[in-house]
Write a structure and sequence with these properties.
Oligomer: single chain
Distance between the termini: 35 Å
Largest sheet: none
Structural class: mainly alpha
Helix content: over 70%
Number of helices: 5
Length: 135
């Protein structure tokens, strides 16, 4: 019979090292990136299905912002998957694209200001992970 560790033995065997905190921070950033993408997609869903179907000159600008939001959602999900898969190059590329899209959306006065800034912060931390961590 194989001896299994109890919960207390498992908890007490965890060593609080630098790598442990780095991995814990990595998991938190993954969930923040995923949450940011989910929040953007929910807002995008609300905007698309609550908009009246009228055509005006401002529709073109609104459509461009919606495409930007959609691209932001896809890149944030990609960044979260890159962190999960520990692909350094993909994390760097997705982070740079996310920062660029976040700046564009901030200049376009997107209604999701806090989520946008949080996504930019996650992207900067993703770049730091790709150079610092032993992914």
């Amino acid at each position: 019979m194989r001896k299994r560790d109890t919960l207390w033995e498992t908890i007490t065997s965890i060593r609080l090292t630098k790598l442990f905190f780095l991995r814990l921070f990595e998991v938190l950033i993954f969930f923040i990136a995923l949450g940011s993408a989910i929040r953007f997609s929910r807002q995008l869903w609300n905007i698309l299905f609550e908009m009246p179907f009228k055509f005006k000159l401002s529709d073109t600008a609104m459509n461009i912002m919606l495409y930007g939001d959609f691209a932001y959602v896809l890149i944030m999900v990609g960044l979260a998957i890159g962190i999960l898969a520990a692909n350094k190059r993909f994390i760097r590329v997705a982070s740079v694209i996310t920062i660029f899209l976040a700046i564009v959306l901030l200049l376009a006065k997107s209604p999701l200001l806090i989520t946008n800034i949080l996504g930019m912060l996650v992207s900067l931390i993703g770049i730091w992970f790709s150079y610092r961590a032993k992914l």
